[in-house]
Amino acid sequence: MKLLRINHLGIASTGLSEAMARMERLFGMAADHLEEVPDQKVKTAFYPVGESSLEFLESTDVEGPIGKFIAKRGPGIHHVCFEVDDIEAAVAMLVEKGVRMIDEKPRSGAHGCRVAFIHPSATGGVLMELSQSTRD
Q1: Whole-number Å distance between alpha carbons of 130 and 117
Q2: Which of 18, 109, 129, 133 lies deepest, with the highest CB count within 10 Å?
Q3: Residue 22 sits in a domain of what CATH number?
Q4: What is the pLDDT of residues 4-57, one digit of tens each?
Q5: Tens digits of per-residue pLDDT, 46-71?
Q6: Range of the structural domain that residue 126 is part of
């Protein structure tokens, strides 16, 4: 598995409009990409920061991953996402090593990427996302 870069830092929010207003007020930034990801039950707003991004997430379902996270822990840092060169190979390697995965098969994510999450119990408490772009 080759980690190419930190793709983004995911931040759970109680509302995108408030998060977007905060980014505008603090840094004069506007989101460069807004998207709803039905598979993950979220709406997202991405802000480029150097070669990475901040991804603000708003739950569209209280039973979705972000809804449950906010109910348990409140808003804040949710995950770190690493871009990989081959997500199928990366997931297979981790599964073979016995790493606890949330996703043992990649699924659809924002920007049309394929993503898979590593369970925080396998990483010392940090939810980690692997992502591979489907764009050439």
Answers
A1: 6
A2: 109
A3: 3.10.180.10
A4: 999 999 999 999 999 999 999 999 999 999 999 998 999 999 999 999 999 999
A5: 999 999 999 999 999 999 999 999 99
A6: 3-132
